[in-house]
Design goal:
Beta Polymerase, domain 2, 4 helices, alpha+beta, about 120 residues, six-stranded mixed β-sheet
Length: about 120
């Protein structure tokens, strides 16, 4: 059972990413396959500025809700930004690197979560 705190973070992050026109936002429940986190969120942007804007928006909204990242990686290059919130890990890619790293395939044992499932 995923803690409500993790669902709340995921809801906030997905909303923030969608606000900045993220492409192909996927939420994976990895709680049964890893102790690393409850959720991975994977999204992509079309250029460096958009990828950074998506990360900024997610970080700002999560911070307003009282959640601080444990770690942020890749912000300067912005081809893959990782925001680590312990129970939630957000991966924001440019399109080329998302295809290259293909996290959906690597973590295919996780369960795809529908946006509506985060609501309650």
């Amino acid at each position: 059972m995923i803690p409500e705190r993790s669902k709340e973070m995921a809801r906030i992050a997905v909303s923030a990413l969608e606000e900045k026109k993220a492409k192909d936002v996927k939420v994976l429940d990895i709680s049964d396959v890893s102790v690393m986190a409850d959720y991975f969120i994977i999204a992509s942007g079309s250029n460096r500025n958009q990828v950074q804007a998506m990360a900024d928006e997610a970080e700002e909204r999560l911070q307003k809700a009282g959640f601080e990242p444990r770690q942020v990686e890749g912000y300067q290059t912005a081809n893959w930004i990782l925001l680590d919130y312990q129970d939630l890990i957000i991966h924001i890619f440019d399109e080329e690197n998302r295809l290259f790293y293909d996290l959906e395939r690597i973590w295919r044992d996780g369960n795809l979560v529908e946006k509506a499932d985060l609501e309650g």
